[in-house]
Amino acid sequence: MTGASEPGRGPAPPPQVGLLTIAREWGRIGCVGFGGPPAHIALLRRLCVRDRRWLSPAEFEDGIAACNLLPGPASTQLAIFCAWRLRGAPGALVGGLCFIVPGLLLILALAALFLSGRTPAWVHGAAAGAGAAVAAVAVHAALDLLPASRDRARSRTRWTLYLLLGAVAAVTVGPYLVLLLLACGLAEAAVRARPRPDTRTLPLLLAVPGVGGPAGLGTLGGLAWVAFKVGALSYGGGFVIIPLMQSEAVGDHGWMSAGQFTTAVALGQITPGPVVQTVAVVGYAAAGLAGGLLASVMAFAPSFALVLAGAPRFDRLRSSDAVQAFLDGAGPAVIGAIGGSAITLGLALEHLWQVAVLAAALLWLPVLRRGVVGTLLAAGGVGVLAALAGLPTG
């Protein structure tokens, strides 16, 4: 059975694929899905549309569009959505977990290696080298997102304003960035709405309990709150977690140093599965293995909840003018924040040889358009050589 539609009858009912099949196929993608969302989408499409014909091309493309309307990691939500189409809620849970867990196990093992206080010099060098290139990855990600966002803009003036506000906020306001993203989305929705919404609702936005989080939660409570905000409010894909998490993980809570944070981002890029796995490294730095697992659960829980609750209503979500307007405002602010995070990441570099690595990565990625994973691995190799040559890496 395929997921194709018959003329005049709408989408065909989803095929009843066995849970073991879903576990095997989604687990395989979780193991080999290096390269971030583009690779994940290609692998899911090959499996569900081309090879198995479980879904029609139109259904799959609609799934991509709908998942891009939701906050959180879009490729993870697409994996959950495709599994939901094949076996309902049980399929979504099994497919999503099997997609996430392989990369989670690997990144926690790497976190234990790279964040250990007794690691050899070459390991510190690899971390310092890969971390030095992360700012270039942020620039590359922002530039990739710019064209589609600019083409969709109703007003280039407002689009530019949101973009600049996001960039400035990423450098200056730290955890308050979430409020800026929400404000830009609501502002665009208000501009397009007729009549305009009651401005008395705006103070409610400023009261969103997502800035610093409730006081007195302790390390695990604070970590859970930060990770939840990342999963629930990260509009624009996985890379927006950098400006959302950096100030809290490094400055507000002091769970890790700036150098360790860039290492966390690099590990999230070179491991398979979603980039949001970076939160597991932050969690490990804050509270060991329990912290890494807790952060991952809290970051991915909103994706499962949003897809399970929203999948039957995705068509209405996509057709909502209010939702589209909100995303048209929040989207450019997110891109600006991703680009702005490159400034703080670059300022965190401590050694001259790291600056040289960053300069080379800026040429290799945004200018020559090479791959992210290969760039980070090469930068890590340079760091190993720097350590073996006796250059400072700590």
Folded structure, characterized:
This protein is mostly helical and 394 residues long. It has two domains: 19-101, no CATH class; 106-388, no CATH class. It is 73% helix and 0% strand. The radius of gyration is 21 Å and the shape is globular. It starts with 18 loop residues before the first helix and ends in a 6-residue tail after the last helix. Keywords: Cell membrane, Membrane, Transmembrane, Transmembrane helix. Its main location: membrane. It is found in: Cell membrane.
Offer a quick outline of the entry.
The protein has 394 residues and is mainly alpha-helical. It has 17 helices and no strands. It starts with 18 loop residues before the first helix and ends in a 6-residue tail after the last helix.
Strand content: under 5%
Kindly provide the radius of gyration, computed on alpha-carbon positions and rounded to a whole number of angstroms: 21 Å
Please, what is the average pLDDT? 83
Note the overall shape: globular
Task: Please mark out the parts with pLDDT under 50 across 5 or more consecutive residues, or reply none.
Answer: 1-10, 196-216
Q: Quickly give the structural class.
A: mainly alpha
What is the first-to-last residue Cα distance?
A: 57 Å
Reading the helices and strands in chain order gives HHHHHHHHHHHHHHHHH
Biggest sheet features: none
- In DSSP terms (H or I, runs of 4 or more residues), the helix count works out at 17
Query: How many structural units, i.e. domains?
Result: 2
Helicity range: over 70%
What's the number of extended β-strand segments?
0
Membrane topology: Multi-pass membrane protein
Protein name: Chromate transporter
Keywords: Cell membrane, Membrane, Transmembrane, Transmembrane helix
Subcellular location: Cell membrane
